[in-house]
Amino acid sequence: MERRLAVDSATSEEYLRIASIAVAFYDYILTLPAEWRFYRSQSSIFHMSLACILFILIRYISIVVIVLSNYGYFATSFTQQACQRYYLATPVFKVMQTMISQVILGVRTFNISRRNRRIGIALLLLYIFSVSVEWFTDLFHRIPVVVDGNCTPVNTGKTLSAWFYYLVVMLYDIVVLTISTTHLLRYNPLSTRIGQLVRVLIYDGIGYFIVLTVSNVLNLILYHTSDAETQSSGASIGYAVTWIMSQRILINVLQMTDPDTRPLENVVLARPTFSARKNVVSGLRSQFDTKSHSKNSKSPIDAEFAPSQARDGHDNDMELDIRVCVERSVKVDYMDASEHSNSWGKSTVK
User: What does the DSSP assignment read for 153-175?
Assistant: First the structure.
């Protein structure tokens, strides 16, 4: 009976690992176009934006940690001496992945808080404290275990052990996402496009917290078990979830700010007579040329993106570290007046 339970447990652990690999690989293929857009949006390979650098790091550090973890588990040729040199590789890259993910959340929260200096200092201190505890708890009392030729790092600590690592990660997520969500809820955008961006940021934060919390709670439970292979099986799911949710935050911001991803507006204008054609060209130019306005005047587009006023009289604008292109991409089809029955003042808009 005990042997049958052991076999079922080993089979379940293999299924968990294979499922995490499959989900991670599927998401990698699915996000290849987004990766290409990140590279294409950079001015130079030597002058990459912070978002692009973080995207590359979280993407490929996650691949490394998943490969190292599952290679050690599915291998059949490890000796105790070889495992002694290999077993710490997975915990080290695991902490590195978590550090990058927390940097993404920290920078996101700092920008959403309008780069408030006090919040920035608090986030930096919280990050340093969290990283220090994570390195200690993840490597403390780790020993290599070889079973049937595989190599698995096992935690044997009783007071401070690897399960405490996931508790610290959850506390960091709670604090950082609470700060960012609070600032987002206080922001009242006038533009529907900016409002949509704010909603995306809120949903990303809530989704990240829910999914990562479920994964971390699962690992908290598994690391309280005495079975070595059971301890590490849930970690493989955590690697995949951290990778997917962290890069999803960066991808969603890219999609909201990339002009190539916005739909075109089809506009059909009746072509006027030659005498009025000059005025039409002048009007179209003034619509998209913001430099033509005087310093004291505001265009309708400027008014659309004007920051709202808070109830206490202070500006309630927010710097999200996002470039928003205010020009609208349009397709314009001109028709002769003889081809269009309506007058010039009643142009047809599709």
Answer: EEE--SSS-THHHHHHHHHHHHH
Say what the alpha-carbon torsion angle 244, 239, 112, 130 is, to the nearest 10 degrees.
180
For residue 267, give the DSSP letter.
E
Distances from the Cα of 145 to the Cαs of 85, 203, 229, 254, in angstroms? 12, 41, 9, 43
CA distance 334 to 348: 11
- Residue 22, C-beta contacts closer than 8 angstroms, at least 6 positions apart: none
For residue 347, which of 280, 255, 249, 262 has the smallest C-alpha distance? Answer: 280
* Contact of 144 with 80, CB cutoff 8 Å: yes
Predicted local distance difference test score (pLDDT) of residue 225: 63
- Report which listed range, 4-8, 51-55, 292-296, is most confident: 51-55
Q: In sequence order, what are the beta bridge partners of 269?
A: 334
At residue 265, the 3 state secondary structure works out as strand
Strands 265-270 and 330-335: parallel
Q: Position 61: which residue type? A: I
- Alpha-carbon distance of 52 to 133, in angstroms, equals 28
- Work out the average pLDDT over 199-214: 84
CA neighbours closer than 13 Å in the CB half-sphere of residue 60: 8
Most confident of 132-136, 186-190, 303-307: 132-136
Cβ atoms within 10 Å, residue 73: 19
- What is the per-residue pLDDT across 237-253, written as a single tens digit (0 to 9) for each? 889 999 999 999 899 88
Per the listing, tokens 């009976």 go with 1
